[in-house]
Amino acid sequence: MATKTHRVLPGFGLALGYTLVYLSLLILLPLGGMVLKASELGFGQIMDIALSERSLAAFRVTFGASLLAATVNAFFGLVVAWILVRYPFPGKRFVDALVDLPFALPTAVAGITLSTLYAGNGWLGSYLEPLGIKIAYTPSGIVVALIFITLPFVVRTLQPVIEDIESDVEEAAASLGASRWQTFSRVIFPAIAPALLTGFAMAFSRAVGEYGSVIFIAGNLPLISEITPLLIISKLEQYDVLGATALAVVMLAISFLLLLGINFLQWWAANRYKNEEPLEAAASRAVGGQP
Amino acid sequence: MIPFRRPLSALLLALVASAALADASLLNASYDVARDVFKDYNPLFQKYWKQKTGENLELKQSHGGSSKQVRAVADGLEADVVTMNQANDIEFLAEKGLVAKDWAKKFPNNASPYTSAMLFIVRKGNPKALKDWGDLAAPGIQVIVPHPKNTGNGRNTYLSAWAWALKQPGGNDKTAQAFVGKLLKNAPLFAAGGRDATTTFMQRQMGDVLVTFESEAELIAREFGKGGFEVIYPSLTLQTEFPVAIVDKVVDKKGTRHQAQAYLDYLWSKEGQENAAQNYLRPRDAALLKKYGEQFPAVKTFTVDEVFGGASKAFATHFKDGGSFDQIYVQK
User: Which of A11, B95, B132, B330 is 20 to 30 Å from the Cα of A144, by its Cα?
Assistant: First the structure.
């Protein structure tokens, strides 16, 4: 018996074709062109460029700062998202709108503003510097800029998920005798973990590619505070398009592997918690009961 | 919908009409901070051209980072003329066949209608008594410069310091490199560009000395007032050139060679030279240089050609990957 399932959007074939063409034009074509261009250099040459001392230092700074910034945002972004969903307070809509501002602000403006704030004579820097904490023109400055730029990713991916967890679940857990920590770690966290990872991954990838804001606060000293995008620009200044492309491809490959890893983690988390254990069961298990 | 249509068609008509009013148009691709110079120069030339030929010439400007601009021209930006701040950028266009190989001979003075010089800006009263390049490399001094590898301003600073070290007793490439290395170690950061360096020094009050163009010093005075800083001319410094060229490929296609030639020639006219002087660029015209002597004190300069054997060679030796700048940071 041939059954035709009814779907809201008509034409799976058409939609899939459209999706493929759209993604090919927007993503595969430019990226493919980039890889093709880089392949004009041999594998050995690409590796030489990627493994030079300055490139390695820049990769360390770029990926290290991005991971750190995404981690900080995973934690504080979660707090912000939680507050915004769960608690009514005056000015909530205003605060909610603030979260999006880093998206809207030109990144160069963000970088200049942050470096003005954190420089030795800035509003914040003038208090931090006597304590021996230097932010502007050090690798810490890079992390600060990246935290600023990537905050919305975590908050905005978490908000709808937190909204989906009804407070009944928490009440159920509580009435079954779960402590606050148990309720969070065994009921709520498993439910939001996949979204948190998504937010983390998006924040991380955005941070890796960030140039405009970082450049004004980093200090740009070779081997200390140079980011990979700066090295790419440096190669373009020498009209070395091939070298620049090679660096970009290597950077992309590392990002891709890291994102793949994160996706795998996410898949694992989703399978572990979501499919096997509905929230109610988790609530029950949290207090040691049988589902 | 309908009420919008009339103003819209009027606007379109106006656009078409303004395009039709101009008999020809030129696009000048230029570096970032040349905005002010050409904002003043273009109306001068339009007036002159109208009087001379009766033709209404439309002049468009495109500004951006110098190397970015020439890459855009190489990739198809239809600029009739390029007015840059580094010879190696025009060399690049020559290599690509867009500009004549002997572009530097097509106009007087190495095709550079005006020049500037690298100098020091120090805090009021010069508290650290910084007089010459040697003082900048002393321990405990903080030097603010833009990235020496990625910005024209930074490269000029680097070459100036290098040439000064060469001219010291017993100076050679080795001692020069060691000296520049010492100087760069005094930089707490490398600014993203010339203006970023200025902001860092003036507004954020970082560093003891800022190395920049003479023309930039005047802009700093205008922006921050003359009270906060002093200008120091070192004993020897780089004369920076601002080379110009016609983009042959574009003018031949558009049929604008005639206008483009006149546009660049006029930079050497009395009006063009005076405009440069008023924008704090040293005119080539000796009489005018004397007239504006107060803002252009005599200073001993060298050109990149004299000391480094040309801009392309200087670039290749010092700023290519693995060049002298990289060697300072990565010992292999």
Answer: B330
